[in-house]
Amino acid sequence: MKKQHIVGLMLLGVLIVGIFLIVLFPREKAYEEPSGMPTEPTTTPTPSPIPQFPSEESTAAQEKELAWYEKVNVFATPLMDLPSFVTAIDIGDFAETPAKAQFIALQVSFFHSLGIAYVGQVSIYNIEGSDTLSVYPDLMEALALNIDGEYVDAWWQRFPGVEPYWGSTLHPRWQEFLRGQVERLIDAGVDGIFFDELMGSAGLVGDEKHNGDFNPVVLEGFRTYLQQKYTPKELKDLGIDDISTFNYREFLISKGYAQQVRDPEERWDVPLFHDFYAYIESENRKFVIELMKYAKDYAGQKDRDVAVTANLYGLNSYSLNFAPYVDYFFVEFPFLKDYPKITTCAPILRLGNSFGKRAVLVPDTVLTVPRLLEMGDTATLLQMWIAEAYANGGSLSAPVAYIGSSEGNGRDTIEIFSADMTLMEPYYTFVLEHPECCQSLYTKEDVVLVFHAPSDRDSGEEYRSLFYEASEALLSSNIQYNVLFLDGENSGKLKASIVVLPEPTVPLTEEEEIVLSGAKVIEFHGGMSARDLQAAVIDEIEPIIEVRADKVEAYVFDNTKGLVVNLINKAYDIVSERITDASNIEITISLPEGCNVSSVRMLSPDEDIDISLQFQQYGNKLNFVVPSLHIWDIIIIEY
Fold first, then answer.
1. Domain that holds residue 269
2. Are 215 and 140 in contact (CB under 8 A)?
3. Which residues, in sequence order, are CB contacts of 609 under 8 Å at separation 6+?
4. What span, in angstroms and rounded, lies between the C-alpha atoms of 300 and 120?
5. Between helices 379-391 and 425-433, what is the axis angle to 10°?
6. Res 399 pLDDT > 80
7. Residues 627 and 555 in one domain
8. Which long-range contacts (C-beta less than 8 Å, at least 24 apart) are formed by 412-415?
């Protein structure tokens, strides 16, 4: 079966699948839980009959959404070197139990009938609760426990009928449970698998509301870790007299550190807590990578080639460990009124490209109802993100609706806010009909912006901020660049002449310095202005394009026949939610030596424009005027 690289359509999975299951088919509790810790179920009920999809109970709104997809079917994304576009639903449902897997098989069949690929989901730590625990009661022993010995409540995942808990991701039974989900998804016929919540139990150690995973299996593994890392004398100096009987949770309680561990800031000053985090993070990382490989291996055993992706939320150093193992680069954004900022999409997309993977940006559409009411119309912002995503060699998964939930500890009520998808349709239709604008493109590496993986959880945010600022400075002056992920695994010297290096949080290694040694390195630090960086680069190299207009960014790509220039209007006002159109934009492009232009063509999804432009060429300088720009114009220059 031909390999499909799948991109996501976040809402369809959440709205039609998740909400369909949750709202239309509410699940009764398999057992009652007293307040406090849940108890193990004593019986395993017979699974309920699997509802057909679509159901007669589907609401008019859902039927309208399905009809829209069947008619248009253009939420498509070109990935890697595919000759055509793939439409996908992402993220679909979990296959926690055989019954749920049967339902997923029905969904897969339905969406395939529409020409839509289906990407299933595996959460590294989340379990939906009563339903699954009633089928697998032994999973209770594999749930995470906090410092007080209580089960960890993944409260933000709670919806009507769902009682979520946090799995102990280092526990062998939990790992077996996740491998079973992978197998059931592949057997159900999914085209891809999306792995979410990659931090697993390590996310508990650094979480503000929780304080660690103190499951007995984790504590036993940590005891072995300490025994291998420290000498008996060092252990004694740390307050451990007998490592053979050491229990970290009991140690913290007996030494009076329990309250300090509950504090998200103070816990890092507790003895051995950094070791505790390092151990859990390392073991969790190794398991997640093994699970991704297992998905590929199991699919191969079934003569199938299933795409694998994962949520690299935040681009922190931990998430980027998984980039080499995914088929496409998936980054979730919290969907607020002004975020993802229009200045942060490009560097993230290009970072994905540095791994040889297409990057997909996915706005997180689960918000509180009050927040949704504040947001108002975000159509223009979404249109800009779509343009910026494709103009930077990536993709954007736009939501067809927003899921609003109540405030407070959990999501007790859900409301659906439909988005006007007709506003997005022209953009995705354009991408579908004009692959020459988005595929088989490349940029010359004259300027490279370095992403040096932050060394730890504390330095990540500061470094990413510098990385984004450097990108904004380059793009606002239309300096074309590629991104290099520098992590010590690179080899050889860069072909680029200029390297922009945001000030690293740790010194470069000798190997990393060798990689950069063939280029002029311009270090960008916190005290440096955008104008200073622009001047430093322009002193060394002439930008390939000059745009005589404010707040218009250009993205220039080569193809086999000439150049593709994406123009994006960044004159967006967050308050008014409007964009100011530009007109009569003068463009000058420095052409490669010996190139003679035969035609200049302008296309735009804004008003379905496809026209020829007059141009003048003097030597290697090409001049032309773009008559209008609302959001996105594409200029095709042929030699």
1. 216-278
2. no
3. 602, 603, 633
4. 17
5. 20
6. no
7. yes
8. 412/160, 413/160, 414/19, 414/22, 414/23, 414/159, 414/160, 415/369, 415/372
Residues 528 and 586 in one domain: no
**Residue range 435-462, pLDDT digits in tens:** 777 766 777 768 999 988 765 555 567 7
Distance between CA 164 and CA 198 in Å, rounded? Answer: 17
In tens, the pLDDT along 530-548 reads 899 999 999 988 888 999 9
Of 538, 558, 577, at which residue does a domain stop? 538
Q: Which two tokens stand for residue 555?
A: 């993205």
Cα 482-516-510 angle, rounded to 5 deg:
140
Angle at 482 between CA 327 and CA 501, to 5 degrees: 115
Would 485 be classed as within a structural domain? yes
* pLDDT tens digits, one per residue of 194-249: 899 999 999 888 777 788 999 999 999 999 999 999 999 999 999 999 999 999 99
Nearest alpha carbon to residue 335 among 403, 431, 277: 403
Q: What pTM value is reported for the model?
A: 0.79
In a domain, 592, yes or no: yes
- Say which CATH number the domain at 590 has: 2.60.40.1180
Question: DSSP label at 191?
Answer: S
Same domain flag for 468 and 369: no
Residue where the block lists tokens 């302008």: 602
Position 176: which residue type? E
Task: State the alpha helices, DSSP H only, in 452-521.
Answer: 460-476, 510-516
Q: Which helix (H) or strand (E) holds 187?
A: helix 172-187
Pair (300, 156) in one structural domain? yes
- Extended beta strands in 132-267, E state: 165-166, 192-196
**Is residue 173 domain-shared with residue 296, that is, in the same domain?**
yes
CATH of the domain at 452: 3.40.50
Same domain assignment for residues 292 and 388:
yes
CATH number for the domain that contains residue 397: 3.20.20
How many structural domains are present in the chain?
A: 4
